[in-house]
Write a structure and sequence with these properties.
Strand order of the largest sheet: 1-3-4-5-7-8-9-10
CATH architecture: Alpha-Beta Barrel
CATH class: Alpha Beta
CATH superfamily: Aldolase class I
Order of helices and strands: HHHHHEEHEHEHEHEHHEHEHEHEHEH
Length: about 375
């Protein structure tokens, strides 16, 4: 089996950077007429030379998105069950050295959270934890899945990386999707910002999506945290990873997320800021490069900005999010992982989507139907 960690090297980043900086601006109009965008075309669309063509890129991204996904936007909410973490990460509120109140929900508290979310209309949920296998062992997380299974039509997880057999257990328990961000694809930057804990293992983390796919997980979401490294090269690496998974994990539906780093307890200000215009360029380039991939946009982004980019290729949005532990049921007593900008309730987000001519979708299909298609 080919592993992405063996195929992807630091030299790739230099090659991507050279291609992006050497992109021919005269080729961009013809690229935007193509039905199939190559990887080299994608690098050109990420380049500074593509910025003047952003309006044309947006128009093409809109049309491609309509052709593939119509006017539907799926809604989901994150459900944090623990902020216990053994890693030291310079950008995260849950980082181990941070003096915050640590908490892991009991299964009774988990059910309270599930009920509170369901009452808000949420039917798709993403379970999140800090990365602490001792405080959040797999049996506990499997019990969390079984506890909330009656309340939601789709359950996905964003936890610490585990082995293929563990993902197979999650799938059997009712987990439909796995989300895991590499954070940054630059090994040097990765080492500087992950200074302690098992998250220091770059290779094990980068091969996680493939292990999840090998276990039969139906949805795989990958991403990078914008702000940790120069965004153009970072997004090129993300696209390279996506193209690899399209070949090696073809049985799974693939999705992307590129959240911008947000303020967090004890956080370090990002060195590489990404503007709204930069974000739109990223979004349009990815929609043209990979028309079938989902693209998620979280409540890290402002309400106005999220509303304004609906038509450019977004397929899924979080709504009514809380990043503290126990926040939905009114029992929160912990520090947020990061701050949120869009504080609207799910119903308000759904209304805004409708007002922009799109259809908010709280339920895609039943998990049992999805599993029967594998």
């Amino acid at each position: 089996m080919t592993l992405f960690s063996k195929e992807f090297t630091q030299d790739h980043l230099s090659q991507f950077n050279d291609a992006i900086n050497g992109a021919d601006s005269l080729s961009i109009p013809s690229i935007l007429t193509k039905q199939v965008i190559t990887f080299n075309d994608f690098l050109t669309l990420l380049s500074p030379n593509a910025s003047p063509h952003l309006e044309h890129m947006a128009a093409r991204a809109h049309q491609v998105s309509l052709n593939r996904f119509g006017r539907t936007i799926s809604l989901y909410a994150p459900l944090y069950v623990s902020n216990e973490c053994v890693n030291t990460c310079t950008y995260c509120g849950f980082s181990r050295p941070n003096k915050i109140k640590r908490r892991t929900l009991s299964l009774i508290e988990v059910e309270h959270e599930a009920k509170a979310l369901r009452e808000k209309g949420i039917q798709n949920v993403l379970i999140l934890t800090g990365e602490s296998p001792k405080k959040n062992p797999i049996p506990y997380l499997l019990d969390v899945v079984k506890t909330i299974r009656p309340y939601f039509h789709s359950i996905q997880i964003e936890i610490y990386p585990v082995e293929t057999e563990d993902y197979r257990s999650f799938s059997k328990a009712g987990v439909e999707g796995v989300t895991l961000y590499q954070e940054t694809y630059d090994r040097d930057t990765y080492s500087k910002i992950h200074t302690a804990g098992f998250k220091k293992d770059f290779d094990f983390r980068i091969d996680t999506p493939q292990r999840a796919a090998d276990a039969g997980v139906r949805k795989i979401t990958i991403g990078a945290l914008l702000g940790l490294a120069p965004w153009r090269v970072e997004m090129a690496a993300l696209a390279h990873h996506l193209r690899f998974l399209e070949k090696e994990a073809y049985r799974s539906a693939l999705a992307l997320s590129f959240p911008r780093i947000k303020e967090a307890a004890f956080y370090t200000k990002p060195e590489h800021l990404v503007s709204d215009r930069d974000f739109v360029q990223i979004l349009c380039a990815f929609r043209l490069f990979s028309p079938n991939s989902g693209i998620n946009v979280s409540t890290r982004e402002s309400a106005n900005f999220r509303d304004s980019i609906l038509s450019l290729g977004v397929t899924s949005m979080s709504a009514g999010s809380r990043t503290d532990i126990g926040g939905y049921s009114g029992e929160a007593n912990s520090t947020e992982q990061f701050s949120l900008d869009d504080l609207r309730e799910p119903g308000e987000v759904a209304s805004a989507i409708s007002a922009n001519g799109y259809q908010p979708v709280f339920k895609d299909w039943d998990f049992e139907i999805g599993h029967s298609l594998l």
